[in-house]
């Protein structure tokens, strides 16, 4: 929990600091860049998920080839998409290339986190999470503090992030695994693809409103909306540790773990929404500075979006652990619906986009509650 909180604090410090060091237009670009890294790094999260579930069931197996291929595809797609991303999202052309370096580093690191998580080596997993967060955000924070500007901060961030995989590989090193009487099945491409699809859908649907803000809102309102999403992401990732701890047990068929994970995550979200309702102006002041205090009335809605998606995240991981065939289907449908509603039905305003995003989160949770009746695997 401490490691997750520290990592989240670094992630939130970037937009908080950027709101005070960059103008509104540059803040919107940086927030979009962070969102792109989060989405492009999803194959790494999928790899971590697949490795953790496989390790929990069968023990450690080689995953070097899958790791390298996943990292190469993640960074390569981002570079190849530069001619489309730069004009569509109004980004400097060099930004996607810098983001690709960070993405590759995050994906390579995720394999080792999966080994630690699946093996329930939670102390080392905590250290690994902290190291990855420091590598992922520390360079950007340093660049902002040094006044390097938008591009300079992203450059420093990419250089620092490249060190993370080396440190995590050493942290996850251990004695060679003993040879079992019956060889464990190899990690399959289908498992990795399922994990990638699930995590990609989760992050796309939760970041879609931020990306839509870049398209539908003026630069100043887009920057203000980016500040609001800091609250949403806080409510989404604050209880992440619950899912991290529960996943190996879910993979082994522990049905009680899902109930406990849902209860704790839901309670955490309710508390965060209540806190946002009582201190919305303060929340926006902490997230973006005094210029954004006027938006405090919207704080509970942003917090509710993140809290709803946190519960969805637990249900999604439970379905992946249970071997569901299409666990992320409701999330993809909801993403398409949000794009259509925000783009063609709702007004292109701050509040129009916000309420569209909140309605989507409610619909996703309802759909996942219906489809998550699939049984967990039989207890090991």
Mean pLDDT: 86
Secondary structure: number of strands = 0
| Number of discrete helical segments | 17
Q: Give the SSE string.
A: HHHHHHHHHHHHHHHHH
Low-pLDDT segments, ≥5 res: none
- The shape, in one word, is globular
Round the Cα radius of gyration to an integer and report it.
20 Å
Q: Helix- and strand-based class?
A: mainly alpha
How far apart are the termini?
27 Å
Number of domains: 2
Share of helical residues: over 70%
Strand content: under 5%
Largest sheet: none
Organism: Micromonospora mangrovi
Transmembrane segments: 28-54, 66-85, 91-113, 125-148, 154-173, 185-205, 225-247, 259-283, 295-316, 328-346, 352-371
Protein name: Polysaccharide biosynthesis protein
Keywords: Cell membrane, Membrane, Transmembrane, Transmembrane helix
Notable features of this structure?
380 residues; 2 domains; mainly alpha
Protein model, in words:
The model has no long low-confidence stretch (mean pLDDT about 85). The relative contact order is 0.13. Helix content is about 80%, strand content about 0%. It folds into two domains: about 1-170, no CATH class; about 190-380, no CATH class. It is an all-alpha fold. The protein has 17 helices and no strands. It has helices at about 1-20, 25-40, 40-60, 65-80, 80-90, 95-120, 120-145, 150-160, 165-170, 190-215, 220-235, 240-250, 255-280, 280-290, 300-320, 330-345, 350-370. It is globular and about 60 Å long. InterPro entries: Poly_Biosynth_Transport. Keywords: Cell membrane, Membrane, Transmembrane, Transmembrane helix. This is Polysaccharide biosynthesis protein. It is found in: Cell membrane.
